Fold this sequence. Notes:
By secondary structure, the protein is an all-alpha fold. It has helices at residues 13-35, 49-67, 70-73, 83-109.
Amino acid sequence: xxxxxxxxxxxxxxxxxxxxxxxxxxxxxxxxxxxxxxxxxxxxxxxxxxxxxxxxxxxxxxxxxxxxxxxxxxxxxxxxxxxxxxxxxxxxxxxxxxxxxxxxxxxxxxxx
Length: 112
């Protein structure tokens, strides 16, 4: 957000906050899927329907909030469409890193 979208001025503060909010919400939501199983989430282990639907609902509500009339009240703003490919890359990297650390932890300490 800082360098790519130039959200580095007081005027662009809401853009930075919106991007930070969405990235934080999605990464925190996806971590539930990452730590719930020893396997690779979504590939080797599928979540239950209630968990998957709840995850999708949280993601949709979070992203939708930045496009809603409440966005201004919360000091958020709609994100440019170019933000979302970057978001996917960041989340994919986060998931790969989390899976690697989880694998190391399980090898070192075991799965309880």
